[in-house]
Amino acid sequence: MDIQALKDGILSSPAFVVDELEVSKALEALATLRDRCGCKVLYSIKALPLSAVLALAKPYVDGFSVSSLFEARLASEALAGQGTIHLTTPGIRPDEIAELTVLCSHVSCNSLGQFRQVASVDKTSSSLGLRINPKLSFTEDARHDPCRQYSKLGVEISDFLDSGLTEHAKGLHFHTVFSAMDFTPMMQTLDKLKYLMGNQLTALDWLNLGGGYLFDQIIDSSGFISQVASLKNDFDLDIFIEPGNAIMGKAGYLLATVIDCFSSDGKAIAVLDTSVNHNPLVFEYQRQPELYEHNPDGGYSVILAGSTCLAGDLFGEYRFNQPLSVGDKLVFKRVGAYSLSKANRFNGYNLPDIYITDSKQTRRIKRATYQDYRQQWLSDE
């Protein structure tokens, strides 16, 4: 993407921009991986459930992965019967089970109790499975370690084997990593699963290997391809993967404008017309997003601050070739996943306008208004 042209061409700010070509590039890489090994690809729509993105993904994937009733409804509308919908969530409400099992072709229950509860309602609709916790941690940060101690996510393999449900579960699901750049965690997890279950895997119909891998950025996929072939040949399993960040991560940009500049304790502060509430992973994981204008060797250091009252509403400290001024536009890169889906209007600051761009044009596809904000807070009385 020509970011300078983007800055010159977009008049509104803040703006969230989806690069259609980058999305398609990631989807094509996944389609190639699917063709090489025979796995099935699901887009995990929690990364960005924007209808334009779902439409882009639909021709390339075998379905969508969802985690709630609303996501399932949206996925069903987008697919219109042309794909599968897989549900995985620790939070299935009893009054939603009947609808979820109609909407979703596959349901990976999070606990043994949840499995029994869903099975008692759903007799024919969904292929019911279990999310397992292989008790293998691959990150030191417990905030995004599904296998952390006292984890709420999944059933230990040994507990599943002792549960009496091995003849009833149609599949297993696991998800153990976050933004992994190689397949080592997956290989170790599959080795443990095969060691503990052996030929009992032949009783299953499918195995969902989850997400968390940056599939499009992993150079060597030979081990993954071999594992999928082995699982299919040895146990006659359908193999699913459900990338989200791998599809959307590099395809999103947040354009902002400097609205104030001043000094605080000897450091330059630039306040932007956006906020970490438009990119919550910044605060959630204390992560500093990539900035197009940042130059590590630049002579001017500036703390970029969001426009809300939260003291920690800070994007980080960046370096520039020249001092920033009110009206300057800045662009954060690689913020396509989990930004808009977690964004909020804290302090009453509006959500960014949403644009989509390709090689020919950039067009605005959504704008939130005061009426949207007002409707959110009007009483139903």
From TrEMBL:
Where N6-(pyridoxal phosphate)lysine occurs along the chain?
A: 46
Domain of life, per UniProt, equals Bacteria
Alphabetical keyword list: Cytoplasm, Decarboxylase, Lyase, Polyamine biosynthesis, Pyridoxal phosphate, Spermidine biosynthesis
Family (UniProt): Belongs to the Orn/Lys/Arg decarboxylase class-II family. NspC subfamily.
Question: Which SUPFAM superfamilies does the record associate with it?
Answer: Alanine racemase C-terminal domain-like (SSF50621), PLP-binding barrel (SSF51419)
Asked if the keyword Cytoplasm belongs to this entry, the reply reads yes
Would you name any one GO CC term? cytoplasm
Main EC class the enzyme belongs to: lyase
Where is it mostly found? cytoplasm
GO molecular function, a single term: diaminopimelate decarboxylase activity
Cofactor names from the entry are: pyridoxal 5'-phosphate
Q: Which reaction does it catalyse?
A: carboxyspermidine + H(+) = spermidine + CO2; carboxynorspermidine + H(+) = norspermidine + CO2
Q: What is this protein called?
A: Carboxynorspermidine/carboxyspermidine decarboxylase
GO BP terms: lysine biosynthetic process via diaminopimelate; nor-spermidine biosynthetic process; spermidine biosynthetic process
EC number(s)?
4.1.1.96
All residue ranges annotated as the Orn/DAP/Arg decarboxylase 2 C-terminal domain in the record: 148-336
Oligomeric state and interaction partners are given as: Homodimer.
Q: Where is the active site?
A: 309 (proton donor)
Function in brief = Catalyzes the decarboxylation of carboxynorspermidine and carboxyspermidine.
The record's subcellular location field reads: Cytoplasm
A Pfam short name: Orn_DAP_Arg_deC
